[in-house]
Amino acid sequence: MSQNRLDAEEIDWTPPPAPEPALAPAEPPVPRARRIGSLEVLAALLVLLVILRGWLAGLVDSERLQTWTTVFVSVLVQAVPFLVFGVALSAVIAVFVPRSFWARALPRHPALAVPAAGLAGVILPGCECGSVPIAGSLIRRGVTPAAALAFLLAAPAINPIVLTATAVAFPGKPEMVVARGVASLIVAVAMGWLWLRLGRTDWIRLPHRPDVDGESKWHAFWAAVRHDVMHAGGYLVLGAAATATINVVVPASWLQRLAENPVLSVLALAVLAVLLSICSEADAFVAASLSQFSLTSRLVFLVVGPMVDLKLIAMQTGVFGRRFVVRFAPATFAAAILVGTGAGLLLL
Amino acid sequence: MSRLTQAVVLLLFGGAILRASITDLYLRYVKEGLRPFLLAAGLLLVAAAVTTLWQSLRAGEAEEDHGHSHSHEPRIGWLLILPVLGLLLVAPPALGSFAAGKSGSVSATPVSDSDYPALPAGDPVPVSLLDYASRALFDEGKSLTGRNVKLTGFVTPAPDGSPMLARIVLSCCAADGRPIKLGLTGQVPLEVPADTWIEVTGAYSTQRGKDPVNEVDVAYLEVKTWQEIDQPKQPYA
Predict the structure, then answer these.
(1) Are residues B59 and B83 in the same domain?
(2) Counting CB atoms within 10 angstroms of each CB, which of A146, A314, B139, B143 has the fewest?
(3) B202 is in which domain, residue-wise?
(4) For bias kind Pro residues, which ranges apply (chain A) (predicted)?
(5) Which ipTM value was assigned to this complex?
């Protein structure tokens, strides 16, 4: 924020190239320093960035910073299609699917709606970036939060694309695929039921969204898309920055020492799954290459990753609010470790 | 952030994604298969920007003055300028020697049960680093002996300073990129700076090493000739 203000002050000597004629009538009635609107700030910021381009490129010269930038950009480029399609689907849910549909589609009793919603995650072929706005939209449309949360946790882990990727990454070990699907579904349903018992609706604070009632449907659709991309996209940028930092800072040789202890290796890979925030469609390949670790600890990596990671925590904070995330993320993390370890001991 | 500003940010963001996927820039960050999805997502973002522009211009200033409307608009959206900056102004290069030195080599996986098929015809025959490592480590180089092979990769220094040939293997995006490394013997390209792309012609070597980062076996290649080349269009394996 302070950066924006700085640029706003420098606006005097940087003539903003107004991209829109509509700039002119912007005469807010407030006669304070707030006179400079966001569009002028943006224009000044862009001009500054173009002027300082050479200096910025020089800044990114060091190898470490360069790798950071590459990983940051690439996490975003990879996530953008999933984010945009997830946002579009959630806007469809919000605008075109009538409320009564969900009442008919899901079992009336909340305790039954939870496993039904978890299983419904099978049909959403995507990664976790898309399922966060969809789950938020489901809650808005009157789906019980417990069921929406079960969907949120299950969808990125048990859809066909992710399970196929797991089978490809672990050739000759179909039990890995089974263990991943079963353990992820159990965690998702257990967290849904836990929410039914302990959860409180006032922990969830969905962001204010432009009111969609009373406007034309397409108008409402695009307003919802714009709002969600700005919102979830902003948090995705935060998450990508955190992921890139971990990727560049943590030396892989630390992991070598942890792999020898069976308990520590499970915990280490659970924490690593949170820190690395790899897309659920790719995490199986990373798990396969962590060959010095036991199969059980790699299963825990695959169960934790799509449910709790830095990128998701940032996005969930944006969609559900901070009070929700500080309770939900640690509980899910613990449940995923326990169930993942159990499934590993039984099935692998 | 007013609606007009959001429209401009969305337009820049969608435009940056479109530009990266129309040019080959996206290949530095993700796999080729993502291209149609990137194009579709970029078009959808631009469409959202255009409708927002149109709506807010049509609504005129009456809408913009609408009390405290901007305080509800997501401030976090300002961060979307960062990827625009990254893609349009900085466009960082593909992962290279720094990433290769930091993480351990991919462990080549054996072909399940059956024997390795003979290499295709050609002298030298082009082989990928992964294929070479797998044939060398799990088949004792049986399918490689007596053949000249040609490999493409970049130079990365081993911890002791000797040059290795490497390539980054992606399964999804550069965040999960991991190197496959080969040791070099024979006419080793000395005095070549790290990250230089080279094309190496050589033969199977029985020498073995270990990647100190993750204790994975590393195969060796006996270099006969090598030459500097430009970075290939698809930098990842």
Answers:
(1) yes
(2) B139
(3) 98-228
(4) 14-27
(5) 0.89
